[in-house]
Design a protein that fits this description.
Length: 168
């Protein structure tokens, strides 16, 4: 009887899990709704089933802005944007890239909303549930003389199964 109760509670908690929402958008939303929310999104079909969208202008998250603009060729500009990946018209991956060195503040803000992260290696953090994950990290590229160049703070929300096997 005790085992049955534990299984029911675990099942109920998994049913309650939702994808991690960023600024009112979460995996599972439609491409149509994303385009309504982001009038200047640039979207392209990668395959019959997969569509990618990017937003360059007016990107911010938790009060931190992105320093990017359409046509910018710097690595920072490619990392500081909104990137959305859709499978069959449904969002499976959403990423915000904003100015670097802001992971601690963004992690603190997301902790207030979602509770303590499942994993934390400061300044990065990850939250996980049965549906998906949410992560915050600093994006780095190689700099001169073996140094590191920080180009963005990334906030990613994704479904556990992003539909990556589709169209194979």
């Amino acid at each position: 009887m005790k085992t049955m109760l534990i299984l029911l509670l675990l099942s109920a908690s998994r049913l309650a899990d939702q994808p991690y929402e960023l600024k009112g958008e979460a995996p599972g939303m439609t491409l149509k709704q994303f385009r309504v929310n982001h009038k200047h999104a640039e979207c392209s079909n990668r395959t019959t089933h997969q569509t990618n969208c990017r937003v360059y202008d007016g990107v911010s998250f938790a009060g931190v802005t992105a320093m990017t603009y359409k046509g910018c060729s710097l690595p920072e500009c490619d990392a500081q944007e909104i990137f959305a990946d859709f499978v069959d018209g449904r969002l499976v991956y959403l990423s915000y890239g904003v100015s670097p060195f802001n992971a601690p503040d963004i992690v603190a803000t997301l902790t207030k909303k979602f509770g303590e992260p499942s994993e934390s290696t400061k300044p990065a953090a990850t939250w996980r549930n049965s549906v998906g994950y949410l992560s915050v990290s600093e994006m780095v590229v190689p700099g001169p003389n073996g140094s590191k160049k920080y180009i963005a703070t990334r906030i990613d929300s994704s479904l556990n199964d992003r539909g990556e096997g589709k169209d194979i």
